[in-house]
Amino acid sequence: MRKVIVHPQRCVGCMQCMHACATAHSKSKELFAAALESPLPKARIHVGVGLFNEGFPNRCRHCEPAPCQLACLPGAISRDVETDTVLIDPDLCINCASCAMACPFGVIRYHQHCYAPPGKVVAVKCDNCFERQMQGLIPACVEVCKAHALTFEDPSRALKRRTDEVARSVSPGVLQTDLAAGFSVLNAHKRQQIEIALRRSQS
Amino acid sequence: MNDLFANRTMTRDGQLLLEKAQRDRIETVWDRFENQLPQCGYCEMGLSCRICVMGPCRIDPFGEGPQKGVCGADADIIVARNLGRMIAAGAASHSDHGRDLVDVLQEVAEGKATGYQIRDVEKLKRVAAEYGIVADGKDPAEIAGELAYAMQEDYGTRRKSLTLLQRAPAKRRAIWDKLNITPRGIDRETSEMMHRTHMGVDNNWQTLLLHGLRNALSDGWGGSMIATEVSDILFGTPQPAATMVNVGVLKADHVNIIVHGHNPVVSEMVLHACQSEDLLQLARENGAAGINLAGVCCTGNELLMRNGIPMAGNHLTTELVLTTGAVDMMIVDYQCIMPSLGSVAACYHTKMISTSDKARFPGMQHREFHPENAAEKAREVVKEAIENFADRGEVYIPVEPVKAIGGFSVETIVDALGGTPQPLIDALKAGTIRGAVGIVGCNNPRIRQDFGHVTLTQKLIENDILVVDTGCAAVATSKAGLKLAEAAQMAGPGLREICGALGIPPVLHMGSCVDNVRILVLASALANALGTDICDLPIAGAAPEWYSEKAVAIGAYFVASGVYTVLGPMPPITGSMNVVKLLTEGLKDEVGATFHVEPDPEKAALAMRRHIEGKRAKLGLPSLKV
Which pTM does this prediction carry? Predict the structure, then answer.
């Protein structure tokens, strides 16, 4: 089964996944129109800031067993077996925040959205673009990520690729190559800027 | 002190006012910077292109996603086009500033710009002679009219090369000719850059970058140089004078007026109004002890250089200075004026006035200054500032000001040396002074305010390298107390001895950011005196905290003029390692100088010392191993 896989070392921090996610969870499914809707659609993937100002796309891991599901008193959270997706039913949700307290990754938010009863604030999180998948589309965040920091594939394929990458890096006589030389230069530069500040704080 | 604030700025006034800003719930540039994190990697690497509407496009730096924009441009082309447009914007800004001064010169010649006059007739004649204008038997106004006309032609397309290029060493001009980067017209090169970077024009990243150098040279030896020379003609060539710096220059019992921006056309008129007896009397009648005019940013530097007017702070202090509650009016012209200022001022009694027909800001009242009405407009706004004094709330001026000396034009440096650069050359030859470095540029919230400028300067003077600086860098070292004759104690023994003999600080304030051309003129004078090229001199440039497009143009004209230049922040070029390699290595074979990027100012100092000692060795001068 294909799943969304995150490759943090490739995140360039452009936040396009957030825009695509919000648009995919709007009424109109169009960026310009979505920005005018009420309630305003919101992203369910969140790009965080690392220690060295690098980006990280933080999204629901669809854990199993899912702590949010175990914590949900009204039973609003369930698992769709076909897509292996943890889903929240906005009609049953009582906005108690138990799921957010249980979630180890901080990916649950509370707001109105166009699929929930009008005016009702409910728990919201990634639904693996359930609706798009039904139409044969891949999740919106993956589709928009041109740096391949998010991919939609069979985990065993991604892991095989990673295994091969590691294997090649230790091949005898082979110099370790950069994923992208320019990106490494930029990151080393930003890291150095932050380290200068840290050095000062510690001294 | 709160560690967060100490990490944002090394200045005491800045730290205390950040605390005040937090108490007053003022959002600052640092808060907005944090809200922007993480910043888009495509844009940071120069890999996003918004030039046409087949796009916008971006290139995947990891090689799996798109490698070409819709038009077919690859990473090299996209990065070069983006950098080219940054240079064009920077060159356009400083050069348009120059054009405004030429317009004033023209109107002075026509007798229309009442309030302005020609203060340095000698310089007018000197510069006119460079333009081939015969001064004999003509009055200054007539010469000024002819000079303004000739300079306007430098902006156009009637010349094969810019007039002031003749100041550059012959060897340097030969390099420009050979590379076909001799700038022809100031506006022409900017315009051509916009053309070349349009879809489907120049798609060779090397020729795009070479044109970038030509575009930058059109600013450095054209628009900016004209700006400085005409400013000196109209407002006087700077002379060394004592002044005061940091937020402590504000006075609780005075009407405080701050000028902010770049062009002395407005600030000089405000200065006159502040000195007029009837307005001073009005200030006293309104309960103030007097009128205190201070600057921030480069229009402040213009006044500091020529009139010893105090300086309240540099780029990242422009919001904080308002949180003192002591500023009765801030008058802005253009460039580097954050659009947030109006909303900061709204929390206090401060009146905000914009003055340029080409620069408007939210939360400011617009009073348009033109050469023919500037004197009268200046009086009007100063009067309003005086009337606003009574509306002041609580005032918090947290520090005492620091003394500094400013006003080192090339003319006064040569005067201080006894009329010729020879003593400086002798000191360089003997190794008493190892070399000279120009430190320029801005503040940038990526870097602890002033830390880059001050650390780099300290490390250089400790090692007997004379530092000249301009712009926000010059304000940073002034605040740090490095622009005093006593600061020679912090210099190495050789530099200390020279400073002691001449009575000068080890760090010389050469003006605003447009005045970087003074450094070019000084370097050319040294090279000409030695019969060599600028790239052979034991000198270097640095922009440790740069942020603006103007700084990109400045860096590019320094390098194209043969000055090895070290940048603190990384320009948006790492998306193309070809471009990176050309700028940091390849240009050495073409123009004899390169860029270097180094965020750590201590390491930057080492790199510059290594460069300087290497140049000394090549000149056959005693050199050290660094």
Answer: 0.93
